[in-house]
Design goal:
Structural class: mainly beta
Order of helices and strands: HEEEEEEEEEEEEE
Largest sheet: 11 strands, antiparallel, barrel
Number of strands: 13
Strand order of the largest sheet: 1-3-4-6-7-8-9-10-11-12-13
CATH superfamily: monomeric porin ompg
Number of domains: 1
Strand content: over 45%
Radius of gyration: 20 Å
Distance between the termini: 28 Å
Length: 317
């Protein structure tokens, strides 16, 4: 294994990411961290068999933002000022590889979300404490080996409307649709990825592009289309421990429908995500990331997180 200076490698990854082109994303509702932990599409895990992934996400949206600037509550009669959305999500993934070419994946999230806002007609503080299963994702992956050091692939899938869209608070007030554990819609998932091993397999560079789009509205609501671009680098310090660096670009269109808030949804987000992973056994990998914003632009006024974190494990069964 050839030894390189990690700082130089990470700088190269950042420059390549920005040259390509410009999850935690903002809303009055919930956020998912946009860190990419699909290890098979990064060339980090290979071989046939079943893998279980568990991923915990923490994103505390407590900062109001208008456009690209910080904002303060206005307190105007007849309006609502968002104050905080605390997201603590757990995602379970089963990934089954038939070999080097085909693989299938299923992912189910558990949503733990606390949200509060101020209704300025009172003023009255309203809050919701939501704990429920979210929307199931099913996908298939077709990989093409380009040579011994690189591969490319495509992903096709569906997000199914398994999550609740009827959650209420203790007073029986329905949560806003963007706050619900599910969107109520069936969404198409389409992606492509590429990875390449560098410098004697010590370093792996990857990039992935994903598009998510709902087929139609459900009960007056459809989430905005999303485009996610990830470029990252994995550098192996030892045979078991690797340093990780990603740049995650996420664009979300405005939500649509009578129950949506198109003027207060969607935006563009660019995050940098340093992390570390450790192979405790040949079958068990643990990892962690901190995600920090580089650029955020929201439509209207929305809640954002100043940082978020991801902790997880991947286990070959």
């Amino acid at each position: 294994m050839k030894n390189n200076k990690p700082a130089a490698v990470f700088a190269l990854a950042a420059m390549m990411t920005f040259s390509v082109n410009p999850a935690a994303h903002a809303s009055c509702g919930g956020a998912f961290c946009s860190v990419n932990t699909q290890w098979e599409t990064q060339g980090a895990w290979t071989g046939e068999g079943l893998r279980l992934g568990l991923r915990y996400e923490y994103a505390d949206q407590d900062q109001l933002r208008r456009g690209s600037d910080k904002a303060e509550p206005e307190g105007l009669p007849g309006t609502i000022d968002e104050t905080r959305t605390l997201n603590r999500n757990l995602l379970a993934t089963l990934d089954y590889s038939l070999g080097p070419d085909w693989a299938f994946s299923a992912q189910m999230p558990w949503i733990d979300r606390v949200h509060s806002h101020v209704d300025n007609n009172g003023p009255t503080v309203e809050s919701w404490n939501i704990g429920s299963l979210g929307d199931l994702r099913l996908s298939a992956r077709r990989q093409f080996g380009l040579n011994e050091a690189s591969a490319a692939g495509i992903q096709l899938g569906l997000k199914l409307p398994t999550g609740s869209i009827k959650e209420t608070n203790r007073d029986g007030t329905m949560a806003e649709r963007s706050l619900q554990p599910g969107t109520g819609t069936t969404d198409a998932l389409l992606g492509a990825y590429y990875y390449r091993k560098l410098e004697g397999d010590a370093t792996t560079l990857f990039t992935q592009l994903m598009v998510q789009a709902p087929f139609s509205e459900r009960d007056g609501y459809a989430p905005g289309q999303q485009v996610m671009l990830d470029v990252g680098l994995r550098y192996a310090f030892t045979l078991k421990t690797s340093a990780l660096m990603q740049l995650n670009v996420h664009w979300k269109n405005r939500d649509k429908g009578a129950e949506a808030e198109p003027d207060e949804s969607g935006g563009t987000f660019v995050n940098i995500s340093p992390g570390i992973s450790h192979l405790f056994t040949p079958r068990l990998q643990l990892y962690g990331f901190v995600q920090l914003p580089l650029y955020r632009y929201v439509n209207g006024t929305q809640l954002t997180a100043d940082w978020s974190a991801v902790l997880g494990m991947s286990w070959k069964m």
